[in-house]
Design a protein that fits this description.
The chain has 405 residues and is an alpha/beta fold. It contains 13 helices and 14 strands. Helix content is 40%, strand content 14%.
């Protein structure tokens, strides 16, 4: 089979592949614990389910406008005013089949071949491949001090004549780091001065812990939105545990949103109407589920931190948000892919290799599952890595001994 050069250059999503692997093992009856997942286990808000069911009950499931139904765009405008203190118009909004599509359509709308998109490492696994799919060149930037946030100076030094956009994801997947208000302000001012698109991937912006809040880029804008190259991406997948509904959105200046809508109309037409009405229900309905999820995740994070701190040689920075942490396991094995494979093969724990996020030696561990999964999963990992652990470990009904390792 003859495939395009582009198709041959794109790697599959590591996280989605791990989900598939975990599902196959579970189907075989294996006692798999998934600490690599990226979706909350809580249920979708009842308002979302009721709204979706109401449309389904009519039997009238039709095409929608390519940029989203008016009711959803109105709900997003309201959400922006309530949570960002920013008043935008419906013309500034496009709804897409997930935040991922919103970002993909945005990249298609702004990138010409060989133009560059900069983003700090560690980064979401899809950023490099999405930039390449849009004909651009991904440019990850790693902080010289080994932290999870480069300085503005480090990012500025990577900018050149081909730089078209900078992506900031805060809270960050995979590290859980929340960028400081000073850093976000400096980036807004830098991008305005250089006329570079600043893309804020805010998909986790309400899942922040310890009384902290994610900085809002709008707070530091000097130019009005219609003259700005600031674009904010968000969606219902994470904060409302609605990953399967696949609804996200982008907010930007009107000409950009119009261009994105044109591209999306040729890609997929509008998002699925039942999903859009579900999103309307979530955004306009009772917000207790989002806060309940945040509180649960904060507690889960605390449990995971306590367990990880018992590992000798593992370096871990406490995440301020999301449902991930990004510990450094290089004291045990520097090749994160080999380490991840080892843990899956030997103790049936799914993790995500750090190299997929631009940081070798690390593993992304998720705490969005149950407390039992967190504690048992980390106990299995410790048993597999720590030679001073007990000689025996039970995987379901199967007893393992250390000589099996």
């Amino acid at each position: 089979m003859s495939l395009s050069q582009l198709a041959r250059s794109i790697r599959e999503s590591a996280t989605l592949k791990l989900n598939e692997t975990a599902a196959l093992l579970r189907d075989k009856g294996e006692p798999v614990i998934h600490l690599g997942g990226g979706e909350p286990k809580s249920k979708a808000p009842m308002d979302a389910v009721i709204n979706c069911a109401a449309l389904l009950n009519t039997g009238e499931i039709r095409y929608t406008p390519p940029d989203g139904i008016p009711a959803l765009k109105k709900a997003i405008v309201r959400y922006s005013e309530e949570h960002y203190n920013k008043l935008v118009s419906a013309d500034n909004v496009i709804a897409s089949g997930g935040a991922k599509q919103a970002l993909m359509v945005l990249l298609h709308a702004i990138l010409d071949p060989k133009e560059e998109v900069i983003f700090p490492a560690p980064y979401w696994v899809s950023y490099p491949e999405m930039v390449k799919l849009a004909g651009g060149v991904p440019v990850p930037i790693t902080a010289e001090d080994g932290t999870f946030c480069p300085t503005v100076r480090e990012i500025a030094s990577a900018c050149g004549s081909y730089t078209k956009a900078i992506i900031l994801n805060s809270p960050n997947n995979p590290s859980g780091a929340v960028y400081s208000p000073d850093f976000v302000q400096e980036m807004v001012e830098f991008c305005e001065k250089r006329s570079i698109y600043l893309i804020m991937d805010d998909i986790y912006n309400r899942l922040v812990f310890d009384g902290k809040k994610a900085a809002i880029a709008y707070d530091f804008m000097k130019a009005p939105l219609e003259q700005s190259k600031l674009v904010v991406i968000n969606g219902v997948s994470k904060m409302y545990a609605m990953t399967g509904f696949r609804i996200g959105w982008a907010i930007g200046n009107k000409p950009l949103i119009e261009a994105m809508a044109t591209i999306q109309s040729q890609q997929t037409s509008g998002p699925a109407s039942p999903s859009q009405w579900a999103a309307v229900g979530a955004l306009n309905g009772v917000q207790s589920s989002a806060e309940s999820l945040r509180v649960t995740l904060e507690n889960n994070r605390n449990v995971m931190m306590e367990r990880l701190q018992a590992f000798e040689g593992v370096n871990i920075r406490k995440p301020d948000g999301t449902f991930y942490c990004f510990p450094d396991f290089s004291a045990y094995m520097k090749d994160s892919q080999k380490l991840s494979n080892f843990l899956l093969e030997k103790v049936r724990v799914v993790t995500v290799p750090g190299k997929e996020f631009g940081f070798e030696g690390h593993l992304r561990l998720s705490y969005c599952g149950t407390i039992r999964d967190i504690t048992e999963g980390l106990d299995r990992i410790k048993w597999a890595l720590d030679p001073n652990s007990a000689n025996e470990l039970y995987l379901g009904d199967r007893k393992l001994t250390r000589d099996w390792l």
